[in-house]
């Protein structure tokens, strides 16, 4: 079947979608957006977390057909999504094209400071706090953490733990991830 | 596989009548796991997300009509006062991502003995509103679970809503697992005090082939509370009564040994949860009782 939906603010179309496949499979294999990770395929690990009509969900548990006509934000579009949330979308050229999303990387003009990179504040905070080790869980954590900071700008530690309780990380022990989210929240409230 | 996308409830019923093997999917948190792991390859998958009525709820005089696919996250946020037991149970479901998608209709459709909503529904008192092209009916929650992952639905029926009695007294919910998030219950226990009828109702999860009530324990406690005049005098429940209640709740279980726990552990844990939830709810009732008495 054919699937029409919005991905990172732009209309997209996927063809030859099998009726039983997941939104995650469509994103990774049909649209070439491998940012959302495929690990447990049963909603246990959160590494496939995306926003579906604004709500964080495990994309591995959404049937592709259920995304018809809906809006999806993936980690590849998070930087543009965060910028447009902060500044609005005046020019009409909002969202992230597939091409740009496919080429996205966290590398700027200065590899030491991250200067010139296309990062959402929560992504920059993860880099600054050293919250990324192997990186596999990171996309899901970024999407979940960004949504929590949008909803709850001044989270307590308990709020952060609860918001990220559906995202497993086997490297960091979570302490640096907690640091990163606290840092992102602090910067957000200071308007940095 | 065919993907059915009914735009209305009537269309969904017609599709289910035409294809009784069609698997309804709402939150997808059970169905997609089975499809991802190739444990199930249904001929028809029927998306219920387009039917607006299913994710709405109405608060009535006596009960809440909860649409089958209202996500747990909304129950936690909006129905804590009316359905405290179910709101507590909802908060123990998996993770935020799962609670944003999964709902009580799916829990009932799957009818796993470990489903988190069941003990709360049994304790509060509920009816499941189901419908087919042949007509609608309401199944009392006590008659809904018929076996391990089996329920009273006919092949052409769909779950439309759940009518849950609004709390008329304190309710509690308790669940045993290895951590707070992402846990399938080792066992779970729901308790609701109903001061209006001077009764107590229980719900036990994951400790028998189906979710069950501990009826002998309920009857014992109802009689003990009546005999002691406790509903009126608001005294503490004697330890011997709480102990006996816990024993009878444990005795109601018919658990198995499995990877999550042994039968003996489950029986023991249900007894502990029964005693604790009884203390919590009764203390809360006594607190409210004292305030009302003081104001009078």
TrEMBL record, chain A:
Superkingdom per UniProt: Bacteria
An MF annotation (GO) of this entry: metal ion binding
Pfam families (UniProt xref): Fer2 (PF00111), Fer2_2 (PF01799)
UniProt-listed Enzyme Commission number(s): 1.2.7.4
2Fe-2S ferredoxin-type domain location: 1-78
InterPro entries on file: 2Fe-2S-bd (IPR002888), 2Fe-2S-bd_dom_sf (IPR036884), 2Fe-2S_ferredoxin-like_sf (IPR036010), 2Fe-2S_ferredoxin-type (IPR001041), 2Fe2S_fd_BS (IPR006058), Beta-grasp_dom_sf (IPR012675), Diverse_Oxidoreductases (IPR051452)
Keywords tagged on the record: 2Fe-2S, Iron, Iron-sulfur, Metal-binding, Oxidoreductase
PROSITE patterns in alphabetical order: 2FE2S_FER_1 (PS00197), 2FE2S_FER_2 (PS51085)
Coiled-coil annotated spans: none
PANTHER family: OXIDOREDUCTASE WITH IRON-SULFUR SUBUNIT, XANTHINE DEHYDROGENASE IRON-SULFUR-BINDING SUBUNIT XDHC-RELATED
Name of the protein in its database record: Carbon-monoxide dehydrogenase small subunit
Species of origin: Streptomyces griseoloalbus
């Amino acid at each position: 079947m054919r699937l029409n939906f919005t991905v990172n603010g732009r209309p997209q179309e996927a063809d030859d979608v099998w009726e039983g496949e997941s939104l995650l499979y469509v994103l990774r294999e049909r649209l070439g957006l491998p940012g959302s990770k495929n690990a447990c395929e049963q909603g246990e690990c959160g590494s496939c977390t995306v926003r579906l009509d604004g709500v964080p969900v495990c994309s591995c548990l959404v049937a592709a057909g259920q995304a018809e006509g809906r809006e999806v934000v993936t980690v590849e579009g998070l930087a543009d999504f965060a910028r447009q949330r902060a500044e609005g979308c005046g020019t009409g050229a909002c969202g992230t094209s597939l091409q740009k999303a496919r080429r996205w990387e966290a590398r700027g003009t200065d590899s030491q400071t991250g200067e010139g990179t296309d990062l959402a504040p929560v992504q920059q905070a993860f880099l600054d706090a050293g919250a990324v080790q192997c990186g596999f869980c990171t996309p899901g954590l970024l999407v979940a953490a960004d949504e929590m900071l949008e909803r709850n700008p001044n989270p307590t530690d308990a709020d952060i733990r609860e918001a990220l309780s559906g995202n497993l990380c086997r490297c960091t022990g979570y302490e640096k991830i907690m640091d990163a989210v606290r840092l992102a929240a602090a910067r957000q409230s200071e308007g940095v | 596989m065919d993907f059915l996308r009914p735009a209305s409830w009537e269309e969904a019923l017609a599709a289910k009548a035409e294809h009784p093997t069609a698997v309804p999917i709402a939150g997808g948190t059970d169905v997609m796991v089975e499809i991802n792991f190739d444990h199930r390859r249904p001929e028809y998958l029927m998306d219920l997300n387009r039917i607006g009525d299913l994710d709405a709820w109405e608060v009535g005089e006596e009960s809440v009509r909860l649409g089958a696919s209202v996500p747990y996250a909304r129950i936690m946020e909006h129905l804590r006062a009316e359905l405290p037991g179910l709101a507590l149970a909802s908060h123990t479901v998996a993770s935020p991502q799962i609670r944003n998608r999964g709902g009580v209709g799916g829990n009932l459709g799957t009818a796993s003995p470990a489903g988190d909503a069941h003990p709360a529904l049994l304790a509060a008192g509920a009816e499941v509103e189901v419908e087919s092209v042949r007509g609608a009916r309401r199944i009392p929650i006590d008659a809904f679970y018929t076996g391990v992952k089996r329920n009273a639905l006919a092949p052409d029926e769909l779950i439309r809503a759940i009518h849950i009695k609004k709390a008329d007294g304190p309710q509690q919910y308790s669940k045993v697992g290895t951590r707070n998030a992402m846990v399938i219950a080792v066992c779970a226990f729901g308790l609701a005090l109903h001061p209006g009828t001077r009764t107590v109702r229980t719900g036990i999860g994951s400790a028998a082939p189906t979710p069950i009530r501990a009826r002998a324990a309920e009857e014992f406690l109802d009689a003990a509370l009546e005999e002691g005049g406790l509903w009126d005098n608001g005294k503490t429940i004697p330890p011997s009564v709480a102990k006996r209640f816990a024993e009878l709740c444990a005795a109601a279980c018919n658990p198995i040994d499995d990877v999550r726990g042994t039968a003996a552990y489950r029986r023991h844990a249900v007894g502990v949860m029964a005693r604790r939830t009884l203390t919590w709810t009764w203390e809360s009732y006594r607190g409210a009782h004292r305030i009302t008495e003081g104001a009078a």
